[in-house]
Amino acid sequence: MTTKTILVVDNEEYIQEVIKICLETTTKWQVVTASSGNEGIKKAEIEKPDVILLDVMMPEIDGLTTFKYLQENPETKEIPVILLTAKVQTSDHQRYADLGMKATIPTTKPLGVIAKPFNPLELAIDIAKILDWKE
C-alpha cells in the first residue's frame, strides 16, 4: 500500500492510539489525530488527508455535524470520510445515506461506515476496500 495520510477524529484517546499503532505498523500510512470535531475540521484543512475516520458520537460537535461542516467547506469537501460508529442499525444507515455516506444494509460490508468495535488487524484492509485503494 502506498503512503497515505489518515486523519482520525475521535474523542477517545485510546481509540486514536489503537488506530495509529495499527495503521502505522501494518501500512506505510501516516496517522494524524484529533480529539474533537472542531479540531478535526482544522486539521483536515491543514493536513489535507487522504481520508478521515470520523467517530459519530462525540461531545460538543458530533460526527454527523462535523461531516456536514467538512462537506460545506471547499477546503475539505473532497476528502473521503469513513464513519467509525457503534450505531450500525438499518435506521442509522439510512440516516448516513441521507447525509451522503454510501451505507448499505447491515448484511453487507457498509461503504463509508466501519462498525465499532472493529478488528484492529483488519482496519487497514477495511479502509482500503471502502476506498478501492490498491497496493
Can you walk through the features of this model?
It is built from 5 helices and 5 strands. Helix 1 (13-26) links the parallel strand 1 (5-9) and strand 2. A 5-stranded parallel β-sheet has the order 2-1-3-4-5, with helices on both faces. The chain has 135 residues and is α/β, with parallel strands linked by helices. The model is unreliable at 102-111 (pLDDT under 50).
Task: Give a short overview.
The chain contains five helices and five strands. The protein is an alpha/beta fold and 135 residues long. It has a five-stranded parallel sheet, sandwiched between helices.
**Secondary-structure content class:** alpha/beta
The biggest sheet amounts to: 5 strands, parallel
- Return residue spans where pLDDT drops below 50 for at least 5 consecutive residues: 102-111
- Ends distance: 4 Å
Question: What's the overall geometry?
Answer: globular
Mean pLDDT: 83
Proportion of beta-strand residues: 15-25%
Spatial strand order of the main sheet:
2-1-3-4-5
Number of strands: 5
Q: What oligomeric state is this?
A: single chain
Give the C-alpha Rg: 14 Å
- Tally the helices: what do you get? 5
**Helix content class:** 25-40%
